[in-house]
Description:
Layout: H1 11-20, E1 22-26, H2 38-47, E2 51-56, E3 61-68, E4 72-76, E5 82-86, E6 90-96
Antiparallel strand pairs: 1-6, 2-3, 2-6, 3-4, 4-5
Amino acid sequence: MQKGEGKKCEHGDEGNKKRSMTKEIKIDNKKGGKKMNTDLRRVLRGLLGRTVTVSTDFAPVTGILSAIQVDYIVINEAAGTVVLVPVLAINSIREPI
């Protein structure tokens, strides 16, 4: 590809791609100790009040990120369940685009 040249895409195809893509943030917080690192806190603040899927070693949790505490986050699932996810259990966070 030459400098200044970009990928070309039909407008209709671009819309379909946006609906099927997700943004995922991988987290490496296992060596950070008990407190949340500042990068993770910044990402989570940007997602506060939005629907996210948090991947853990146990099971993924999907719902609205409603609170960020020092060592855990709070997810409100669609069924009304409130789930507390320890920060050290988070492997990745994704949200639909």
